[in-house]
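Re: beginner question about structure tokens

> Can someone show what the tokenized structure looks like for a real chain? I only ever see the sequence side.

Sure, here's an example I had lying around. Input first:
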Amino acid sequence: MDNPPTSKIAINVLHVIEQLGLLVIVVATVFAGIHEVGVMMSNAVVTLADLLLMFLYLEILAMVGVYYRSGKLPVRFPIYIAIVALARYIVLDIKNMELMHLIAVSAAILLLALAVLAVRYGHVRFPYGEHE
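And the corresponding structure tokens:
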């Protein structure tokens, strides 16, 4: 059964909005990465926090690239990004962080890592069908 013309128009409009959103994400990420490199160069220092931030930018670009290639967004990519973001947060604030706060953020990283393992196990043990 074919979609009615209004459904096709709605799908096309949503596709255009999606593409524009992805383009904005890519441009903003590239701009932020270039800005961060400029900050590192002007400070003449590269810290672990800087490297983790650059890694976050690369992960975002990789996630958009995977989406463009496959048309699907693997749930693992946002989880990886969250893990690196939390690790960066710890690196930046560890001196000012209370012990319980540090334990909570570390537990969040552990839970996210376990979520990645569960997702990977699910993909291997229960692979998607042809049209899922």
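Each token stands for a local structural state, so reading them left to right follows the chain. The two ends are 19 Å apart (CA to CA).
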